[in-house]
Specification:
The structure is a single chain. With 322 residues, the protein is mostly helical. It has 2 domains: 221 residues, no CATH class; 84 residues. It is 71% helix and 0% strand. It is built from 13 helices and no strands. Helix 6 runs antiparallel to helix 10. The two termini are 42 Å apart. 29% of the residues are buried.
């Protein structure tokens, strides 16, 4: 049982849920205004899709609240007694789909026509898109009330990079607001940037799906899946961002005001990849060392030393990426 008072366990989520819905509504209203102002007033129909998203988020809150209320009355919370929360990842998937449609429309039609001198210009649009990161930060805590350190470690492992991935997706769109810069891109680069951004908004669906399937850490995540997740973050998310930014850096080398921004972003992407690879090398080394301690040899058999050797090799290899 948690040390928190039972009433507090249920009520402390509702301000966060209200804040999450408020951010979703503000983001939807802001981006829809761009569509109506720069295209046609008929784009107000997007509010219908946004209403569905708000409904899905609300339904997920009700579902998670019922599960939290049920778990607090259990003497021991087990995987079998905890409920599966499918709306957790379905709501985010639908939210990302609607947001991606708006991004594709904006950045393939009128993004270069936006004026920085007006309030609803490029900066406000980037801020509106970046609100997705705050939506995730307020959405995730409403789906569980985990206090166990082991379960919280799993949640942190799967979701710690989501905010940065979303901000990276928004950041990569920076140079798509200027027509002269965009025309200097190699063929297809602008569309690649848009695709990467859209994928970054979709990716949080995967950790949310995994958390729902494991009942937010009640079932231990297999090492192979955890390893696959981290490598995926390094090479499916960070590596394409790094490559795209390096190409952009090369193409914009003559545009002095963009150089520092692109250089810093490329450096961050490189560090992100190296940190993920180094982390996996340490994980592999520790795993080998742990298995060597629990070998099948008899008590009189001399303890094997190959585990220590492999651990040293793994740690040495990881140093190459730091």
């Amino acid at each position: 049982m948690s040390e928190r008072h039972p009433a507090a366990r249920c009520l402390h989520h509702w301000p966060t849920r209200a804040l999450c819905l408020a951010f979703v509504a503000i983001q939807a209203a802001s981006i829809n205004w761009y569509l109506m102002e720069n295209l046609k007033p008929s784009w107000a129909a997007m509010f219908a899709a946004d209403a569905v998203i708000l409904g899905l988020f609300t339904a997920s809150f009700i579902q998670s609240s019922a599960n939290i209320h049920r778990e607090k009355h259990l003497p021991l919370v087990t995987f079998e007694l905890s409920a599966h929360l499918p709306l957790c990842y379905i709501a985010w998937f639908a939210y990302a789909i609607v947001l991606d449609v708006k991004i594709v429309v904006i950045f393939t039609t009128f993004s270069t026509n936006l004026d920085e001198a007006v309030f609803f210009g490029p900066n406000t649009l980037k801020t509106s898109l970046a609100i997705a990161g705050i939506v995730f930060l307020t959405f995730l805590p409403t789906q569980h009330d985990v206090r166990c350190a082991r379960r919280r470690t799993l949640i942190t492992t799967l979701t710690t990079t989501v905010l940065f991935d979303i901000l990276d997706g928004v950041d990569i769109l920076e140079n798509l607001f200027e027509k002269d810069v965009r025309e200097s891109f190699p063929a297809g680069l602008a569309r690649t940037m848009i695709v990467i951004c859209c994928l970054n908004f979709m990716l949080p669906t995967l950790p949310l799906f995994t958390l729902a399937k494991t009942r937010f850490g009640l079932k231990k995540l297999p090492e192979k899946l955890e390893l696959l997740h981290k490598i995926g973050v390094a090479y499916i998310v960070n590596l394409p961002l790094l490559i795209t930014r390096m190409i952009t850096w090369h193409g914009l080398s003559a545009v002095s005001r963009c150089l520092n921004h692109v250089t810093f972003s490329a450096m961050c992407g490189t560090i992100g990849c190296k940190q993920n690879v180094a982390s996996e090398c340490h994980l592999f080394a520790n795993s080998v060392a742990e298995r060597s301690k629990h070998g099948r040899g008899s008590p009189n058999t001399k303890p094997p030393t190959h585990g220590q050797e492999n651990s040293s090799v793994g740690q040495t290899f990881s140093c190459l990426f730091l």
